[in-house]
Design goal:
single chain, about 120 residues, four-stranded mixed sheet
């Protein structure tokens, strides 16, 4: 599997993660989270494979998350509804996301990304 780096190009955390991948000689294909928003099918598969709770997939610091008052609404939504909501707008999804044979990483914490080396 080719490494897929899903990012929002203006995001400073995404830029740091991308720089880290390049500095460590890790090949990847870029995908813009807004222009190529992950589908319901992709998110369903990735969430299951990642072993992260679905709450971790939400960009809780994003304006859209706050505008929609999702902190309150998510508590009453089903898993399917949450995935559909994520798939409706790339800005709701925590980024960057790295898909690889070694696992799925969301957000950028360098110590977590060390498994990629």
């Amino acid at each position: 599997m080719q490494n897929i780096f899903i990012e929002y190009p203006k995001c400073s955390t995404c830029k740091k993660a991308k720089k880290w991948l390049e500095e460590n000689g890790i090949d990847f294909v870029e995908r813009n989270i807004v222009t190529q928003t992950p589908t319901v099918e992709e998110l369903t598969k990735w969430i299951k494979e990642s072993k992260y709770d679905i709450k971790k997939w939400f960009n809780t610091s994003g304006l859209k998350y706050k505008e929609l008052n999702l902190k309150e609404k998510l508590t009453t939504m089903t898993q399917k509804e949450k995935i559909e909501l994520l798939a409706s707008d790339g800005m709701l999804i925590k980024r960057p996301i790295l898909l690889s044979d070694k696992g799925i990483l969301i957000g950028f914490k360098q110590e977590m990304w060390e498994i990629m080396k």
